[in-house]
TrEMBL record:
GO terms for cellular component: spliceosomal complex. Residues 43-56, 66-78, 270-289 have a biased composition (Basic and acidic residues). It is found in: Nucleus. Its main location: nucleus. InterPro entries: Slu7_dom, Splicing_factor_SLU7. Belongs to the SLU7 family. Residues 82-299 form the Pre-mRNA-splicing factor SLU7 domain. This is Pre-mRNA-splicing factor SLU7. Keywords: mRNA processing, mRNA splicing, Nucleus, Spliceosome. Associated with the spliceosome. The gene is SLU7_1. The keyword Nucleus applies. Involved in pre-mRNA splicing. It comes from the Eukaryota.
Length: 313
């Protein structure tokens, strides 16, 4: 006779007679009862399940191991801050910060640009533009550089090789043009040295410096001649007390590098002395010319003199 599998009801509760008691009954440590709990439908095997609740598979839900990172239209990221994430150089960086920096820079630069474009001093220029119906911005538009402008030569700009073609032998402008090297050398502005190299003449302060160096070298040579003569006298007369310790020492004041101001004063002094000597020679030549002319006038003959007052032969 087959075994009956019946269930009995305790009130509205179904009880399976064939489930062992140790499975149906809860342990003493899980016996937590709350008031009104008898009215609810109780799962007698809830303590045997992992979840503790019956999963209703009729409701759509994500599978196991799947994280719900996207909720609706708002994108969310997994903010799991591990050891490497916290030490990333771009950790916590947002592109909105860069946009804020750009906005601040524009706010700073716009007043500067407005101040540069605002020329309050050019009132006449502004009035003229208003009369012509123009604006500053219109003047900077549609400006194209002519490619032939750089190739054209000014009419007053004479090429150097033309001087060489049209130069007369007695003219001041005479240029040696080398067609191989395409170099034009104006001999009035320089000279050729022993190595056939063109050296420009010094002008301005460079010329003044060379004059000072020449004056310093001439004075040093004179001082060196005095030292040589004194040394020869000392060697000739021996230990005679009259010529002993008569050799002059080197004068540092004659060096342009040691005392440039003193050398400039000495050069001016020498220049004044030369001017005085030339003035004396001119006066002397004038007096001689006047004496000769008076001599011939008194004798009644006309002197045959040149422009310097000398007699022609």
């Amino acid at each position: 006779m087959p075994r009956e599998t019946t269930t009995t009801r305790q009130g509205d509760k179904k009880v399976n007679q064939y489930i062992p008691k140790y499975i149906v009954s809860k342990p003493w440590y899980q016996d937590v009862s709350t008031p009104g709990e008898e009215d609810k439908e109780i799962d007698e095997l809830s303590h045997q399940r992992k979840t503790g609740e019956i999963i209703d598979h009729s409701i759509a839900q994500s599978g196991s191991g799947i994280k719900e990172e996207f909720k609706g239209t708002i994108r969310t990221t997994d903010e799991s801050e591990d050891y490497d994430v916290k030490r990333d150089r771009w950790y916590g960086y947002s592109t909105e910060e860069w946009l804020d920096h750009l906005k601040n820079w524009k706010e700073v630069q716009e007043p500067k640009q407005d101040a540069a474009n605002d020329d309050s001093d050019d009132t006449d220029y502004e009035l003229e533009l208003i009369e012509l119906g123009l604006d500053r911005k219109d003047l900077n538009k549609n400006i194209k550089e002519d490619p032939m402008e750089k190739m054209l030569r000014d009419r007053q700009d004479i090429p150097a090789y033309i001087y060489n073609i049209t130069a007369n032998p007695n003219s001041k402008i005479k240029i040696d043009y080398d067609p191989k090297s395409r170099l034009a050398k104006d001999m009035s502005k320089g000279f050729l040295n022993d190595n056939n190299q063109f050296v420009k003449k010094l002008t301005g302060t460079a010329n003044e410096l060379t004059d000072l160096q020449k004056v310093a070298s001439d004075l040093d040579k004179e001082h060196e001649q005095e030292r040589i003569q004194a040394r020869l006298k000392q060697q000739f007369f021996g230990d005679d007390g009259e010529f002993n310790n008569q050799v002059p020492e080197t004068d540092l004041n004659l060096s342009l590098e040691a005392s440039p101001t003193l050398m400039m004063l000495k050069a001016k002094q020498l220049q004044k002395e030369k001017e005085k000597e030339t003035a004396k020679l001119k006066e002397k030549s004038k007096t001689n010319k006047n004496e000769i002319s008076q001599k011939y006038i008194s004798s009644g003959t006309t002197p045959n003199l040149d422009k310097n007052g000398l007699k022609k032969w």
